[in-house]
Specification:
Chain A is mainly beta. Helix content of chain A is about 0%, strand content about 50%. In chain A, strand 9 and strand 10 (about 95-100) form a beta hairpin. The chains are: A mainly beta, B mainly beta.
Chain lengths: ~110, ~110
């Protein structure tokens, strides 16, 4: 069975501070991992995919297979980063996504 | 927005009534998915489709049925709505290489 754990429901930081949103996964094979972001009352948007190794809006995420983690990081948080962030895993057949329960990030001025 | 729309966007209905939500895509993608989003639960897969007339259950399928008679439309039906089905429902389609998904704008359903 595949599982995604986001241990923090809420995370609050000040503008300009570093931010790290944690994600741990459980999967027996080679997973495809993603971060999705949802701004207030909007649709989910794909933020990052581990295989692309891109930096989007200043965010990066590194897959650590030894620790089964895919933490999302940004060195200097901005107020517009305030949103709900979901870590997701795709594995197995039919490309189904398993989501974590989400972390609500608030960046204070 | 990847050519995916949902209707209606908001609906209030009474317990015991049938409700159908529609997801429409213009991308001609094979895979389509229905999720529900609830505080403290994140997104959970209800049903998905891997082609016309080909559907399968997800994690929380009880009380829901789906149909896909055309590539572009994926319907989610609550046969007899209950208050526990009050939620925000998101439809998604596969992305360019199938592993990622693109989401619709969501339908906010309230069952009174």
């Amino acid at each position: 069975a595949q599982r995604v754990t986001q241990p923090e429901k809420l995370l609050s930081v000040f503008k300009g501070a570093p931010v790290e949103l944690k994600c741990n996964y459980s999967y027996s094979g080679s997973p495809e991992l993603f971060w999705y972001v949802q701004y207030s009352r909007q649709r989910l948007q794909l933020l990052l995919r581990h295989i692309s190794r891109e930096s989007i809006k200043g965010f990066t995420a590194d897959l650590n297979k030894g620790e089964t983690s895919f933490h999302l990081k940004k060195p200097f948080a901005q107020e517009e980063d305030s949103a709900m962030y979901y870590c997701a895993l795709s594995g197995g057949s039919n490309y189904k996504l398993t989501f974590g329960k989400g972390t609500l990030l608030t960046v204070n001025p | 927005d990847a050519g995916i729309t949902q209707s209606p966007r908001h609906k209030v209905t009474e317990t015991g009534t049938p409700v159908t939500l529609r997801c429409h895509q213009t991308e001609n993608h094979r895979y389509m998915y229905w999720y529900r989003q609830d505080p403290g639960h994140g997104l959970r897969l209800i049903h998905y489709s891997y082609g016309v007339k080909d559907t399968d259950k997800g994690e929380v399928s009880d009380g829901y049925s789906v149909s896909r008679s055309k590539t572009e439309d994926f319907l989610l039906t609550l046969e007899s709505a209950t208050s526990s089905q009050t939620s925000v429902y998101f439809c998604a389609i596969e992305g360019q290489d199938s592993y990622e998904q693109y989401f619709g704008p969501g339908t906010r359903l309230t069952v009174t």
